[in-house]
Design a protein that fits this description.
The chain has about 190 residues and is mostly helical. Helices cover about 80% and strands about 0% of the residues. The C terminus is likely disordered.
């Protein structure tokens, strides 16, 4: 009977070692899987942040190019480059903006994509008036800028939500700032 008890004791010890090894293996596997998933999410968040920031950078480049063209076309500024060169620069900036938008479309969730569509619509309206494809007063021009800045703020808010950034960004203070608007040239233009 003593031998039987020794055998049972050894079997229990072996079973305990096997259960311990299996438990350790499963725990390590699950932890590694979690670590890999977290690394992938972090990597995608980094890519999204790069895409979102790059897109807004391209949008702002378009706006700056449009402002320069608009001011030269309307005699508000003199510049040593021809209007045709400024128009070409704006066209290149638009192409760059659209390529950046495609990256957003590949990485973003629907709310961010919809916000980016709003930014594109507002930015295109500025581009069109800068080129003279649409007509408008200086006040119309200013309102187009207010609209694009509101759209950019909506995009920022959606991107922050998508990236899990805490805190509130959206406020009237951000949307009401006129970043690059020319001053009125007469009382009628105000």
């Amino acid at each position: 009977m003593g031998e039987f008890m020794d055998l049972v004791g050894q079997l229990v010890t072996i079973a305990a070692v096997l259960v311990g090894a299996l438990t350790t293996h499963m725990t390590n596997h699950l932890m590694e899987r979690h670590r890999t998933r977290y690394a992938m999410l972090t990597r995608w968040d980094e890519r999204k942040l790069e895409a979102y920031a790059g897109y807004i950078d391209r949008v702002r480049r378009c706006i700056y190019s449009a402002v320069l063209l608009y001011e030269v076309r309307n005699g508000m500024r003199t510049f040593d480059r021809a209007e045709s060169d400024l128009t070409l620069e704006l066209a290149e900036a638009e192409g760059s903006r659209m390529r950046a938008f495609e990256r957003v479309m590949l990485l973003a969730e629907n709310q961010v994509i919809e916000a980016a569509h709003g930014v594109n619509r507002a930015a295109a309206a500025i581009d069109w008036q800068a080129r003279g494809a649409t007509e408008g007063t200086l006040e119309d021009w200013r309102e187009l800028h207010r609209s694009v800045f509101r759209a950019i703020n909506i995009f920022h808010e959606a991107a922050r939500d998508d990236l899990g950034v805490n805190g509130s960004f959206h406020s009237n203070e951000h949307s009401s700032r006129d970043l690059i608007l020319p001053r009125a040239t007469s009382e009628n233009d105000s």
